[in-house]
UniProtKB/TrEMBL annotation:
<dbReference type="GO" id="GO:0051539">
    <property type="term" value="F:4 iron, 4 sulfur cluster binding"/>
</dbReference>
<feature type="domain" description="Aconitase B swivel">
    <location>
        <begin position="178"/>
        <end position="405"/>
    </location>
</feature>
<dbReference type="GO" id="GO:0046872">
    <property type="term" value="F:metal ion binding"/>
</dbReference>
<keyword id="KW-0479">Metal-binding</keyword>
<dbReference type="InterPro" id="IPR036008">
    <property type="entry name" value="Aconitase_4Fe-4S_dom"/>
</dbReference>
<keyword id="KW-0456">Lyase</keyword>
<dbReference type="Pfam" id="PF11791">
    <property type="entry name" value="Aconitase_B_N"/>
</dbReference>
<keyword id="KW-0408">Iron</keyword>
<feature type="domain" description="Aconitase B HEAT-like">
    <location>
        <begin position="6"/>
        <end position="162"/>
    </location>
</feature>
<dbReference type="InterPro" id="IPR015931">
    <property type="entry name" value="Acnase/IPM_dHydase_lsu_aba_1/3"/>
</dbReference>
<dbReference type="InterPro" id="IPR036288">
    <property type="entry name" value="Aconitase_B_HEAT-like_dom_sf"/>
</dbReference>
<dbReference type="InterPro" id="IPR015932">
    <property type="entry name" value="Aconitase_dom2"/>
</dbReference>
<dbReference type="InterPro" id="IPR015933">
    <property type="entry name" value="Aconitase_B_HEAT-like_dom"/>
</dbReference>
<dbReference type="InterPro" id="IPR050926">
    <property type="entry name" value="Aconitase/IPM_isomerase"/>
</dbReference>
<dbReference type="InterPro" id="IPR001030">
    <property type="entry name" value="Acoase/IPM_deHydtase_lsu_aba"/>
</dbReference>
<dbReference type="InterPro" id="IPR015928">
    <property type="entry name" value="Aconitase/3IPM_dehydase_swvl"/>
</dbReference>
<feature type="domain" description="Aconitase/3-isopropylmalate dehydratase large subunit alpha/beta/alpha">
    <location>
        <begin position="410"/>
        <end position="894"/>
    </location>
</feature>
Length: 924
């Protein structure tokens, strides 16, 4: 009884937080609950029945296995529970959606009792989460002449699991709720500092937006019980920053509908909207839950009498309201006409939200069911040796004769599944593709594990070249939350077949390397497709897509993803970098020059940025591709020269070998396989068999941007512009300012060098600047704290070999110790150098933060409100983003430097340089 009593005690503790009992996922507790159900005189029997029926997680959890087997006993008459009839037991099995429930249903359907077998077959016809072991059993039974097996296969071939579902309602009534003005970061919907609770959906739901907002949503629901609440980003984009399945889960928890009456706190069908649409990776997450994402376009550029755009004093377009969506506005979404209405007034066309594919997701309650359903239909038709009837919307295939291919079009064509041989697809086509590399990170990994359990997956797809589970987002503090969650996560992922940062057996030293840095190393083919559980999955080899935890789970389980081929924007360069500039300034200038060229319109949003950085190795080029997440791009592709790509692959091989030497490879020798593939790719390039990926000369782009390096005269800073009178202009990444804007007197309270936007060269710049300062002034004195978090351990090791780490140690007041990691987050900082554990640190904001109200100068990518630094009542916290030398000098001075001070400080230092490809220069 101890484990049950512990559960009851936990329930009482959760009541104090206003929470319901935590869903059960463990076999031991559920076994005890079943024992109490069987004991008809047990005092806990009624509660135990409720826990068993309504509060047990499905899929491949150990509790689901116990539940499935007990339901089988009831169906076979081996156990009698008055409240659970055999018919009800079948209903419960139908809601468990895979894993042991499918095993039980197959046992019954292929069993000797015909009456039971027929009932089981009817339930099986509704299920789609079947894996090879399940389909093999069906196939074998069919070959042996089992008529029910044939009947099930015929149903699958007709896709009756989909066709018999209720149709999407023609009209969906919504009532609006303005969640915020301007871009809404997913951090508002699921704060990073609450990452530890994401797998506890009800608890995590309490952190969405604010308690006041939650109360207002409940008020709207009470006032409009027949309508769905639609969350709106007014004058901005919804869901920027990251995919955050937890963000969509929270929105669904508050505004969606319950997926099943027998599965607690799993809601689907949220409706979200933005004046400037939905961030691409966030929209993918909405699709996972069968939700709807609308691009409202309710604010438009104001035009003068001549049809010219009216601009304000900052030369930004003046916007005027086309129609109101203020909180409480009742609107109608018509899924047939694909229009948005206010009463009888048509507001706009919303057909992009209701493509045939998206309509299928909505009907099926999410994209997973469609992906698995298509696979099941294909399997059944092949087994029956028939042509599968056309049930699902055909893939959209766009092929423009005589038109060349962009880089992303080439990659998608190579990895496409189910396309007729010789068929060439262009942007706009909707296609299934094989995924080569998959990454899971630690604050979303627990949710990915849950998703894998819910879709009954037990092992990684054999077609995935390699997959990695990181420990970077919880690297800063090894607190009780991390100690409870991370080992469990690492064991699950290790057992599933991923290379894991922490070895569950304790054989190798734990790594906390930033996930996208590791993925950048283990991507050994620039033709690869990468899916990663972080918005900054933006590799400088291949094309990488940041994704929600569910899409990561789907890629791990199936080795596939489905998506449209995005349009591309080509970015090239001309001119030369000034000697005192750093490549980070080129990155910022790209965004600034693009916005200026296109009148404030972000042509990168939702598209691929094909950046021609041929002369930069993967480490350095990553600084650009990483930032494209903040440019709101769908993804990015780096076009490299042959020699540079070979150099990058050799670096990658060396780092993969380090992982092997540490003992991180698994039984299938995945890491060694990556080295072998890298060797093959290098040979292909050297022998001219297959040169580095490049677009065709006659490829078609949405737009082309030529960045003029000659125009970059001083360091560039991305400013959150926290005091802009237009709220919608705050906390975007579009306000790029030159250093001189700050006049050399803006106070800086803390500096941060680290996370994914820096490479080894940045840490060498830091070391050299400290030596220069000491040489000039006799000592190094910080007037503001400087926090340094290298992205990977191999960078630390390489710096030690080259002597730079010793320099950093000499000037530091704190150095991380893996044998005694911090047990609590730092709340105060001294004016000194902190050498923190490799990982995300301040950029993530879920553990370490700057002091409230600080002005932070950082190499990070995150400037969202409350992410790196929170506000005080009297002062807004702000995170300004800049290059490493600017951050270093700002902490030494305690303020922003003047351009003259900056030039002196970097004199003689080898900054990250970039020279445009000579091939492109001859064209330009």
């Amino acid at each position: 009884m101890n484990i049950y009593n512990d559960y009851i005690k936990e329930i009482e503790e959760r009541k104090l937080q206003g929470l319901h009992p935590k869903p059960i996922d463990g076999a031991e507790l559920l076994s005890e609950i079943i024992w109490q159900i069987k004991d008809t005189h047990n005092a806990n029997r009624e509660d135990s029945l409720n826990f068993f029926i309504y509060n047990t997680l499905p899929g491949t959890t150990s509790a689901a296995t116990v539940k499935s087997r007990f339901l089988k006993e009831i169906i076979l008459g081996e156990a009698v529970v008055e409240e659970i009839t055999p018919t009800f037991a079948f209903e419960l099995l139908s809601h468990m959606k895979g894993g042991s429930s499918i095993e039980v249903l197959l046992d019954l359907a292929l069993g000797q009792d015909l009456s039971i077998a027929k009932q089981a077959a009817e339930v099986l016809k509704t299920q789609v989460f079947l894996y090879e072991a399940d389909t093999d059993r069906l196939k074998q039974a069919y070959k042996e002449g089992n008529s029910l097996a044939a009947e099930i296969l015929e149903s699958y071939a007709k896709a009756e699991f989909f066709t018999k579902l209720p149709e999407v309602p023609e009209e969906i009534k919504v009532v609006t709720f303005i969640a915020g003005i301007g871009d809404i970061s997913t951090d508002l919907l699921s704060p990073g500092n609450q990452a530890h609770s994401r797998s506890d959906r009800e608890l995590h739901g309490q952190c969405m937006i604010t308690p006041q907002a939650q109360s207002e949503i409940r008020g709207l629901q009470a006032q409009h019980p027949d309508k769905s609440v639609m969350l709106v980003a007014e004058k901005g984009t919804m869901g920027v920053g990251s995919s955050r399945m937890s963000g969509v889960n929270n929105v669904a928890l508050w505004t969606g509908k319950q997926a099943s009456p027998f599965i607690p706190f799993v809601n689907i069908a949220p409706i979200v909207a933005g004046t400037n649409g939905i961030s691409p990776i966030f929209l993918t997450t909405v699709d996972v839950t069968g939700g709807i994402g609308l691009d409202l376009k309710n604010w438009v550029k104001k035009l003068d009498a001549n049809g010219e755009v009216v601009r304000d004093e900052n030369n930004d377009p003046v916007l005027e309201e086309a129609y109101s969506v203020e909180t409480g506005t009742v609107l109608t979404i018509n899924t047939k006409t694909k229009k948005l209405y206010n009463g009888d007034q048509e507001l706009m066309d919303i057909s992009k939200a209701f493509t045939p594919q998206k309509m299928e997701f909505i009907k099926a309650g999410g994209s997973y069911a469609i992906v698995f359903g298509k696979k099941i239909q294909t399997f059944a038709a092949k087994t029956l040796d028939i042509e599968a009837p056309l049930v699902f919307a055909p893939s959209k295939e766009i092929s423009n004769e005589g038109q060349g291919l962009t880089a992303v079009e080439k990659i998608f064509n190579r990895n496409a599944v189910g396309i007729a041989p010789g068929k060439v697809l262009h942007a706009g086509s909707d296609v299934r593709v094989e995924v080569n590399i998959v990454g899971s990170q630690d604050t979303t990994g627990l949710m990915t594990a849950q998703e894998l359990e819910s879709m009954a997956a037990t092992v990684i797809s054999p077609i995935v070249d390699g997959a990695y589970q990181s420990g970077c987002h919880t690297a800063s503090v090894w607190d009780k939350k991390a100690q409870a969650n991370i080992p469990k996560l690492m064991k699950f992922m290790n057992d599933f077949g991923l290379i894991t940062a922490r070895d569950p057996k304790g054989v190798y030293h734990s790594m906390t390397d930033v996930i996208h840095k590791v993925l950048n190393d283990i991507t050994i083919d620039e033709w690869a497709i990468i899916i990663g559980g972080d918005s900054h999955t933006r590799m400088s080899k291949g094309v990488a897509f940041g994704a929600d935890s569910g899409t990561v789970a789907l890629a791990l389980a199936t080795g596939e993803a489905s998506m449209p081929i995005p349009e591309s924007v080509k970015v090239t360069f001309k001119g030369a970098m000034a000697s005192y500039m750093d490549f980070r300034d080129v990155v910022h200038a790209t965004q600034s020059q693009m916005l200026q060229e296109f009148g404030g319109e972000n042509v990168f949003q939702g598209r691929i940025i094909e950046v021609h950085l041929g002369t930069l190795t993967a480490d350095q080029a990553f600084t650009f591709t990483d930032w494209t997440a903040e440019m709101k791009a769908k993804a990015s592709i780096c076009i490299s020269e042959d020699d540079t790509l070979i150099e990058s692959l050799e670096i990658a091989k060396g780092r993969i070998q380090i992982m092997i030497d540490k003992g991180m490879d698994n039984e299938k020798q995945v890491l060694q396989g990556l080295i072998n593939k890298a060797d093959k790719r290098i040979t292909e390039i050297k022998t001219y068999e297959k040169p580095a990926l490049a677009p065709d000369a006659n490829a078609k782009y949405f737009a082309e941007v030529v960045v003029d390096l000659d125009l970059i005269a001083e360091p560039m800073i991305a400013d959150p512009d926290v005091n802009n009178k237009d709220v919608s202009k705050r906390y975007t990444h579009d306000t790029i300012r030159p250093l001189s804007f700050y006049g050399g007197d803006k106070k800086v309270d803390l500096g941060f060098i680290g996370s994914c936007m820096v490479h080894k060269g940045d840490l060498k710049i830091l070391a050299q600047m400290l030596k220069n300062v000491e040489e000039e002034y006799g000592k190094v004195e910080f007037k503001a704290p400087l926090v340094v978090a290298p992205p990977t351990y191999n960078i630390v090791d390489e710096l030690k070999l080259e002597g730079d780490w010793e320099v950093l140690q000499r000037y530091s007041g704190f150095e991380f110790d893996d044998n005694a990691p911090k047990g609590a987050a730092r709340t105060e900082y001294e004016n000194m150098l902190y050498l923190e554990r490799p990982g995300c640190n301040l950029c993530m904001g879920n553990q370490e933060k700057a002091s409230k109200g600080d002005t932070v100068m950082a190499t990070s990518t995150r400037l969202f409100q409350g992410r790196v630094v929170e506000d005080t009542e009297g002062k807004k916290g702000e995170s300004l983003l800049s290059s490493t030398p600017v951050v270093v000098l700002s902490t030494i001075l305690g303020r922003t430097p003047t351009i003259e001070e900056y030039k002196v400080a970097v004199k003689g230092i080898s900054l990250t340089k970039f020279v445009p490809s000579s091939k492109l220069l001859t064209v330009l």
